[in-house]
Every structure is written in structure tokens, then in C-alpha cells.
Specification:
alpha/beta; 6-stranded parallel β-sheet; 39 helices; 24 strands
């Protein structure tokens, strides 16, 4: 049998069967292991819940096929494959699969395939206590809302905290001076997001111990430094002017007076970095007719030297000013962090963004991190899928755990292994910490483990697409390699993007450009229209070829483009599925409930009233025309009149009563009264009610709180798209990762890469001037002028952005199985030049390289557009979930007290009774505590009042027992149910220890039920542990509590 490598890396381009490779390796481990539950020792991590589901079902599916008499042909191929690799016979694989399947089904929870967040969550749950977290914390996925809450809370503190108030007021003024909106919360929010994003982790540590006052000092100091530097530049300008004058040079000798004007602008403090700069001898142009030409030439080196100093000073000035722009929100970082921590503590939640950081802090300085001690022996084999999306911190967190497994062997002498699968070309989550570079480094020579055994495998075949699509992508992305300066990125597309074709030959690629239009604002709107029309035409073309709606996906780079396409196609009657069409806030019924809630919050909200009246007019009455109904309802401002008027339409409702109800009850009543039973069952209404319930339980939210929450978060909720409907899918490229579709249409393929979102950069600074080692600066081309370091960083950033953009394009173009349609725009300038930094240009360059491009031709086909895949008529397979229409009446609820358990059955009687007595005794230290303990037990529903006397008798008979007088005497230290940790790490918990002033211990243990010799051994064990701690046990007794109390002294 072949031995697996300790660390194998699979470089798997799109569609190369990586799930197959993962599943095969997984099956190899469990089939060759001597035990049937080897899966318990495997941890497989993948990226999305969908991928987890797919991998689990493939593994279980394969095993159950193997176990059958006649496996499917696909399963038989896999069995042959496994048999060749492992040396097991087909019969052995069959028998082993039957045994494993039985095991997995009984221990499904130990079948560990999970997302990385879920795994991290599990680790944190297990160690909540060690990490000083409350055991019951809830996980919040919605970090942004927490952040908004934190920023709001900070701004609300203005007015109380003087330093904070001044800071916020100054910030508002600065923004107004810059002609920006004076609303500062957005800016603070943007900077606050840095705290949440692990990409800024190292930089932020420099700011953690700085107070607002220290930041204000830095700010003052920098402003003064800038002022002094500006003065220096004026002095230098004067020096240059004086030199020219002293030599008696005629200003007109300089061509167009450009140079003297430049000097004059420096003297006047009006230097503009966008104007021409003079750095070389040839930059200074002299008129051919000038008589003092030689004099000028003699002093040019001196002039250039002076200017070089000026430029260097301005680099510094602009650098500091760029930082000053960001310093105010930065100075609030700590305030935001602390506020976030406070909110999480108050609400007993932990934001998912803290998970990785928590573990990272814990592991940082420990050679063998204790967090993994308890897991370490369990996992021997690791699989990580979609490795390029694993963030740096997540990877750093996994290394110690994996290293431990790779260094050792299990009881059968099998080494631990790690298999990672990834494709740096599909790394599109840099903003969340997933970096392509991480995979590239590992696939070169990097190895973070002590075990050197490492192997890189290329999966070369593409099994997803037809040959035409594979060949198009091969040649297109090879050409893309020329766009990069960075050697690693160039190599990635030059040498790692070529795929071998499979047996599916044919396929079709179509690149089309919109007809030319002039570039004005109006036109830009028309352009969107042209794109959506072109998309519809393409869909119709594809349908004519025999494809169905469900075969088609439309991929867009931005959500807005997807919405535009969705709106247009809906108008045109094309059936759609997209997260937009499935958004809850767009559902009519949900909007009606929200409007009614707004009215409950403020009865003079006329707009909300009109909206909910419109819904009622349409759905709940047929006596008046809609318009009249709304108008009449709006006139009745007096609420009781309004309610009486609604009664005529059989709409009985007391708004005042609704306001008194809890949020969920109010919504439930609205739904049951106004929404027809058919619509109540809609998944939108059901999901909305789930959201309401969760807010009500978690935040005890009232109507006003809920509406605030809804305004901020409504767009985050959409119902999951039902599989199996015959409809065109619309999704962003990011969403489509890992999926495949027969036909892909990509409109808007002309993204302008230079118009990118506002990024911020961390640059190194001189600690002595700035007081900080790193500063935060807005990313723009100005950064190139902030010195060598900055230029280098800026170039790296630009290359990274280019890689991310080309990666997104790679993901989009490799989703297609059979046909790919790209709809772009040429955007040629008046001189016929292609634009720089534009996705459209990539396609034009490709067509030029292929010798196909013509300026007057707008559509290009590669391959034959006939449908090749077999005809399968669509069967609708969606299922409807039945609806429960019962609204719960609170009167039907009875609270079960625990005493009902206590006196139910005979054999239970003694034991239950004993347990209750036991529990009450844990509150009793001396006789004086008995009354209070019994009162407490009544309040907690441990027993009923009628049973008070019999319980009291039993307890007194123990406390006043003559042979136990020492145990309940006053003036001693009493420890009830005190945990003792023994040297071996085991814990014990005696029921009662009493320690007197001479360190003598009286030991008691309460038992229910019959006596048992093992209790005696247990008590001796307690005695030994207590005496190991330096006490002496002088009396020990077992007390059996049943109908009678029996004391056994030992």
C-alpha cells in the first residue's frame, strides 16, 4: 500500500475535480485504518456550509454505494481507483464500507467536516471558561450592527466627557471646512471597521495604549512641524531667486518664464505638486536667443540642488497632512474598541470577528498551546479546502494543532497528515484576510512544520467545461499574465492557468460589445439599459438553442448591476432567482407590517398610515375604491374614531392594546387579523416573524427599537433560494464561487479598475517626529510622492489589486460548462485608443492577439453555438412546507413545578425526595439557616407549601441528629459542595466539609436510595485528598435520606 505524504498540497484550477480528490483521500484513510471509526480522527475544513454539505454527502453517499450489491458505475470507478491506490480488494472495500457507514450513522456528530468558523467556535465554546468568557455567550454574525451601536453610543456621550466632546466638535468643523458632509459618524464607522478586520491587527497594536489626549498632542505637534517645513521651503525659494538675481540673469532668458514662475510660487507658499517639477538639467528650458546662456548653465546644478531640498520637504508636508486627515477617527479607535467590548459583554454575545483573534492571543506565546492539548490527540489527519480563502490568522491558528499531528504517529504507527487544496487564481477575499500569496509561498519552498515531507500535486484536467471554453480561458489568461509586474503573479497566470481538456468537445464563447455611444452622464444611464437589453436578447438566443431558464446564470461584479438586470427581466416576465428578488423587505406583507408598526410608534406618522391603509384597501375590504379608503382613513386623526370607522369593514383593532403587547405578540396579532391565511404561510412572513421573535427574546426590543434595527439591517435578510425551480439565476461573482452552470452570461464586462473603493494604507513613519511607528493614509496616487517606502508599498498594493481583479474575472469565466457570453463595451477614445485599467480592454487585446479584432465589428464567436448537452425537460421539484395556523393563547400555559416529579411514582419517590433534601441542605451551614433554606426551596418550586412540614422534619432530624452534633456546630468554617482538584488533575466534590480551628475536618456525604459498599470507598478517597492538603479528617459519615434518615458513621 502506498504511504501518503505528511503534507500534500493540491494546486487545483477551476473545475479540476478537487472535491473528488479530497473525498478520495478521505476515503483512503478511513478504509485502510484498522478501526472502523477512523473518521473521528479527521478534521476537514472547508469554506461554506454548502461545501460542507457537499463533502459530507459525497463521502456518505460513496460509502453507502460501495456497501450495496450493485454500486452505480460512478461508484465502481471510484472503487477501482481506491483499490489501485490502497491495495484493498473490491470485496474488502465493500465490507469495510458497511462497517464504517454503521458507525458514522450512530456517531454523526463526530464526523467532523465543518467550516473554519464553526471549528473555531467549537474550540472557543470548549474553552470559554479558560478564555474568561461567559459559558452561555451567543455568537453574533452581524458585527457591523454592533459597530454602529458602539459609534452611536460614543456620539451620545458627547456633552458628558469634555475631551471627547471637544474632539468630536473639532472633527465636525474640520469636515465642514473641507466642504464635506458634517456627519462624522460614517467616518468613525469606517475607521472602526479597521478594528474588526484582521488585516490591520499588527498596526492597531501600536495605538492600543494611546489616549485621546496623546493623539491631540501628536496632532498639535504635526501641525507645527508642517508649518515650520513650509517656512523652510519659502527660505529655499528665496535662496534660489537670490542666486538668479545675484548673477544678473534676465528672467526672460528662460523659455516662457516657466522656471522663474515655479520659484516664485515656492516663495509665495503656493507650490502645487501637480505642476511641472525640475529635477534634471534638461528640465530647465532656456531661450535659444538668450545672451546669458552660459551663466545660467553654470548655476543650474546649484538650482536643482536647492529644488531637490524643496521637493523633499514637500513630500514630508503632504505625508503629514495626509495623516492629519485620518488622525481624529484613529484617536477614537480605542474608544470604539472599548465600547464594542462593553456592548458584547452587556448582551452576552461574542462577535464572530473576534474568534480568530481570541485564539491567536491565547496561542501566541505557548510552545504547545493548552487550547489544543485537549483536541490534540483527537485529530490525526487534516484537510483544508479552498485554502486560498483561509486568512493568515486562521492559518497561523491551525499550524500548532497540525504540527503536533504531523510530528507523531498513532497507535498503529500511521503518521499524521495534512492535505490542502486551493487555487490562488480564485483568491478573491483579500479584504477578509484571505491572501493568494499564502498559497503561493507554500507551493514554493515554505513549510511551517517540523516534518519536512511535503509534496505539491497539480490537478491538470478540467472536468467541468467543454473544450472550447477551456481553450478560450487557457489562451485568455495566459495573455493576462503580461499585465503583471510581480514575478509570482506573472508566473501564476503564465504557468499555472493552463488546463487539459476532457472528453467533452465543442462548446461556445461569445464576446460582444455595445454599439458606440458618446460618453456623457445621460449616456451612462442608457448604457445600463443597453446592457440589460443585451442580456435579455442573449437569454432568448440561448432558449432558442434548447437550453432552459434554469441552465442560465447572470454574473455581475456589483450588486447594483444585478438589481438592474433583475428589475428589467422581471418587467419582461422572465422567471428569476436572485438574492435581491428574495429579499424580505421587498415583500408586500412585510412592508405592511412595518408600516403598521411605524404607525404604532407614532400615530401622527401620516406616511406610514397611508401605506398600511393602502394594503388594507386592496386586501381587506371591497366596499370603497382604494383611493377613497385611504383618503377617508387619513382624515380621521382621532384614534378611537379611526378604530370605529375600521369596524364598518369588519376590521376590529385596538391600537392601544397592541402597544401594550410585547413586540412578537403585536406582530402575531397583526398577521392573524389582516393577512389572509393563504399569505400568512408565505416564507417571507414566516421568516420575518422569526426575526421579530429573535430580536424580542435577545434584546427585549420594543417597537421603536425594532424599527431602528430594521432600518439598519433590513437588506441583509433574504430567504434562501429554492433549488429546483426553472428560473434564471442572478448572482455576484463572489457568490458564484465554487458553483457551475451550463450557460454563463456576464454583462457590464467593462469595469474601470482605477475607480476603486477608498482604501487606506498603513505607512511607516519616523517615531521621533510623529510619535507613532505607523500612520494611516488614504490610498491615492499622491502616495507615490511620499518617499521611497511609500512608493514601494503603493506599487505592491496596485499589483495586489490587479491580481484580485483578474482573479474575480477568472472565477467568472470558469463557471461555464457549455456556453459563455461576455457583454462588454469598447470605450475607445476619439483617437481610437483603448482605455487603460479597464476590463473591456482585456477582451479587446485578446481579440487583437487572436487576429480577430475589427473596429466596426461588435460581436465575435468562438466555436459552434448549437446545444450539445442532452435534452432534459425540467421537472419542478420544489416542496411547500405546511403551515401551522394556531396562535398560542397564554391562558393555556401551565407552569410545571419540580415537585410534580417528586411525588409521582413509588420507586422514584425516595430518590426524588432525597434529591430535594440534598439540594436544600446545600444551603444549610448551621441550624439557623434551615428556615431560610426552606423558604428558598418554596420560591424555586422545589416543593409545595403543603409539603413544607414533612421536609422541615427531615432536615431537622439531620441537623439535630445526636451523632452529628460536631458537624452542625456553630463557629466553624463550612464548605458545601466544594470542588477539590487533585494532583492527577481529577476533581472531587464532597457534599459537606466542616473545618474547626484546629484544622480538623468533619466530612459528610448525602446519599439517596439503598446503601452500597462503593460509597465507603468514595468517602475514603475524599479523606485521602483532604489529608493530602494538610488537614485531618476526624469524623466521616454517610447519610442515607429516604422516608427515614439513616446515619452511618465510618
Amino acid at each position: 500500500m502506498m504511504q501518503r505524504h505528511s503534507f500534500s498540497i493540491y494546486d487545483a484550477s477551476a473545475g479540476s475535480g478537487k472535491t473528488y480528490a479530497l473525498v478520495k483521500e478521505y476515503l483512503k484513510i478511513i478504509l485502510t485504518s484498522p478501526k472502523n471509526d477512523a473518521y473521528r480522527n479527521i478534521l476537514a475544513i472547508t469554506f461554506t456550509n454548502k461545501a460542507v454539505h457537499e463533502m459530507k454527502s459525497r463521502i456518505v453517499g460513496s460509502l453507502s454505494e460501495f456497501a450495496k450489491e450493485n454500486p452505480t458505475s460512478k461508484a465502481q470507478d471510484l472503487m477501482q481507483d481506491l483499490s489501485a491506490d490502497t491495495g484493498l480488494s473490491i470485496a474488502q472495500i465493500k465490507t469495510k464500507s458497511q462497517q464504517i457507514i454503521k458507525h458514522i450513522i450512530h456517531n454523526y456528530a463526530a464526523f467532523d467536516i465543518s467550516t473554519i468558523d464553526k471549528f473555531t467556535h467549537k474550540v472557543i465554546r470548549a474553552f470559554a471558561h479558560d478564555l474568561n468568557l461567559p459559558m452561555t455567550f451567543e455568537v453574533s454574525l452581524d458585527t457591523e450592527n454592533l459597530l454602529i451601536e458602539a459609534v452611536d453610543a460614543i456620539i451620545a456621550q458627547a456633552g458628558d466627557d469634555e475631551i471627547l466632546t471637544n474632539l468630536l466638535v473639532d472633527f465636525t468643523m474640520e469636515k465642514t471646512d473641507d466642504d464635506k458632509s458634517w456627519d462624522i459618524s460614517r467616518e468613525i464607522l469606517e475607521t472602526g471597521k479597521l478594528v474588526l478586520n484582521e488585516n490591520n491587527r499588527n498596526e492597531i497594536t501600536h495605538f492600543q495604549d494611546k489616549s485621546i489626549t496623546e493623539f491631540l498632542e501628536i496632532k498639535k505637534k504635526l501641525a507645527a512641524v508642517c508649518e515650520n517645513l513650509e517656512k523652510e521651503t519659502i527660505v529655499l525659494g528665496d535662496e534660489a531667486a537670490a542666486l538668479i538675481e545675484q548673477k544678473g540673469i534676465d528672467v526672460k532668458s528662460f523659455s516662457r518664464g516657466t522656471f522663474p514662475n515655479h520659484i516664485a510660487s515656492i516663495q509665495a507658499g503656493k507650490f502645487n505638486p501637480k505642476n511641472k517639477m525640475f529635477k534634471e538639467v534638461d528640465d530647465i528650458a532656456i531661450n535659444k536667443t538668450a545672451t546669458d546662456c552660459s551663466v545660467i548653465e553654470a548655476i543650474i546644478p546649484d538650482l536643482l540642488a536647492i529644488l531637490a531640498q524643496v521637493y523633499a520637504l514637500f513630500e514630508k508636508i503632504y505625508f503629514y497632512k495626509a495623516f492629519l486627515k485620518n488622525i481624529t477617527p484613529l484617536s477614537l479607535l480605542n474608544t470604539v474598541s472599548n465600547e464594542l467590548a462593553k456592548i458584547q459583554q452587556e448582551q452576552n454575545i461574542l462577535s464572530i470577528t473576534e474568534f480568530n483573534a481570541l485564539i491567536h492571543r491565547e496561542i501566541q506565546n505557548q510552545p504547545a498551546p493548552f487550547i489544543y492539548e485537549r483536541l490534540g490527540e483527537r485529530y490525526r489527519h487534516f484537510f483544508i479546502d479552498e485554502f486560498q480563502d483561509t486568512s493568515e490568522m486562521q492559518w497561523q491558528n491551525l499550524i500548532p494543532l497540525i504540527d503536533n499531528a504531523l510530528s507523531g504517529q498513532d497507535e498503529y504507527g500511521v503518521k499524521g497528515t495534512l492535505m490542502i487544496v486551493g487555487d490562488p487564481k480564485q483568491s478573491i477575499y483579500r479584504w477578509r484576510g484571505g491572501k493568494a500569496e499564502q498559497f503561493i509561498e507554500l507551493s514554493k519552498d515554505q513549510n511551517p512544520f517540523n516534518n519536512p515531507d511535503k509534496k505539491l500535486t497539480q490537478l491538470e484536467y478540467n472536468y467541468r467545461s467543454y473544450s472550447q471554453i477551456i481553450e478560450f480561458n487557457n489562451s485568455f489568461f495566459k495573455l493576462m499574465a503580461n499585465e503583471f509586474q510581480h514575478p509570482d503573479y506573472k508566473d501564476l497566470y503564465e504557468n499555472h492557468s493552463h488546463q487539459k481538456v476532457n472528453s467533452k468537445t465543442g462548446g461556445y464563447v461569445n464576446i460582444s460589445f455595445l454599439p458606440d455611444t458618446a460618453e456623457t452622464e445621460e449616456e451612462a444611464l442608457d448604457k445600463t439599459e443597453m446592457y440589460v437589453q443585451a442580456t435579455l436578447e442573449t437569454i432568448n438566443k440561448v432558449l432558442e438553442k434548447g437550453f432552459e431558464y434554469k441552465d442560465v446564470v447572470i454574473l455581475t461584479r456589483k450588486r447594483g448591476q444585478g438589481i438592474a438586470v433583475a428589475n428589467y427581466l422581471t418587467e419582461q416576465g422572465v422567471p428569476l432567482l436572485s438574492s435581491e428578488t428574495l429579499m424580505i423587505q421587498n415583500a408586500t406583507e412585510v412592508r405592511f407590517i412595518i408600516h403598521l408598526l411605524r404607525y404604532l410608534k407614532n400615530s401622527s406618522d401620516v406616511d406610514a398610515k397611508a401605506h398600511f391603509l393602502q394594503y388594507l384597501a386592496l386586501h381587506a375590504q371591497d366596499q370603497l375604491p382604494v383611493h377613497d379608503f385611504i383618503a377617508k382613513g387619513k382624515e380621521l386623526a382621532q384614534e378611537t374614531e379611526f378604530e370605529n370607522w375600521l369596524l364598518q369593514f369588519n376590521l376590529d383593532l385596538s391600537f392601544q392594546n397592541l402597544r401594550k403587547k410585547s413586540l412578537y405578540e403585536a406582530v402575531e396579532i397583526i398577521v392573524s387579523k389582516f393577512i389572509s391565511p393563504a399569505l400568512r404561510t408565505s416564507s417571507y412572513v414566516q421568516y420575518f416573524m422569526d426575526i421579530v421573535l429573535e430580536r424580542d427574546i435577545r434584546n427585549q426590543a420594543g417597537v421603536a427599537d425594532f424599527l431602528d434595527f430594521w432600518d439598519k439591517s433590513a437588506e441583509k435578510f433574504s430567504i434562501p433560494s429554492p433549488e429546483g425551480t426553472n428560473a434564471v439565476r442572478i448572482m455576484t461573482i463572489h457568490k458564484s464561487k465554487g458553483l457551475e452552470f451550463p450557460v454563463v452570461i456576464m454583462p457590464f464586462a467593462e469595469e474601470d479598475y482605477s475607480r476603486k473603493p477608498k482604501d487606506k494604507l498603513w505607512l511607516n513613519a519616523e517615531e521621533e517626529t510623529v510619535g507613532l511607528p505607523k500612520v494611516l493614509i488614504d490610498n491615492s496616487s499622491a502616495v507615490e510622492g511620499f518617499g521611497e517606502d511609500a512608493l514601494e508599498l503603493y506599487t505592491i498594493k496596485k499589483q495586489e489589486e490587479l491580481l484580485d481583479n483578474i482573479n474575480v474575472l477568472y472565477v467568472a469565466l470558469t463557471r461555464a460548462e457549455e456556453q459563455l457570453y461576455i457583454i462588454s463595451s469598447k470605450n475607445l477614445s476619439s483617437k481610437g485608443e483603448v482605455p487603460k485599467n479597464n476590463m473591456g480592454t482585456f477582451f479587446i487585446n485578446y481579440l487583437i492577439a487572436q487576429g480577430l479584432f475589427k473596429e466596426d465589428r461588435f460581436e465575435y464567436d468562438l466555436g459552434n453555438s448549437e446545444k450539445l448537452s442532452l435534452e432534459e425537460k425540467h421537472e419542478d421539484s420544489t416542496k411547500t412546507i405546511p403551515f401551522v395556523a394556531e396562535v398560542l393563547n397564554p391562558k393555556n400555559i401551565k407552569i410545571a413545578k419540580r415537585e410534580s416529579l417528586m411525588w409521582g411514582t413509588h420507586q422514584q419517590e425516595a430518590i426524588e425526595y432525597g434529591n430535594v433534601i440534598h439540594e436544600i441542605l446545600s444551603f444549610v451551614k448551621t441550624k439557623n439557616d434551615v428556615e431560610l433554606a426552606i423558604t428558598k426551596a418554596l420560591e424555586n418550586g422545589l416543593m409545595q407549601f403543603s409539603q413544607r412540614d414533612i421536609v422541615l422534619q427531615t432536615i431537622l432530624s439531620i441537623v439535630e441528629h445526636e451523632s452529628l452534633s460536631n458537624h452542625f456546630a456553630e463557629g466553624n468554617q463550612v464548605l458545601n459542595e466544594q470542588t477539590i482538584i487533585q494532583k492527577e488533575g481529577r476533581t472531587i466534590k464532597p457534599d459537606r466539609m466542616v473545618i474547626d480551628s484546629n484544622n480538623n475536618v468533619f466530612l459528610l456525604d448525602y446519599k439517596t436510595g439503598a446503601s452500597n459498599p462503593k460509597y465507603k470507598i468514595q468517602l475514603e478517597n475524599y479523606q485521602k485528598a483532604i489529608e493530602d492538603m494538610g488537614y485531618e479528617v476526624v469524623e466521616k459519615a454517610l447519610i442515607y435520606i429516604g422516608k427515614e434518615v439513616v446515619v452511618v458513621k465510618l
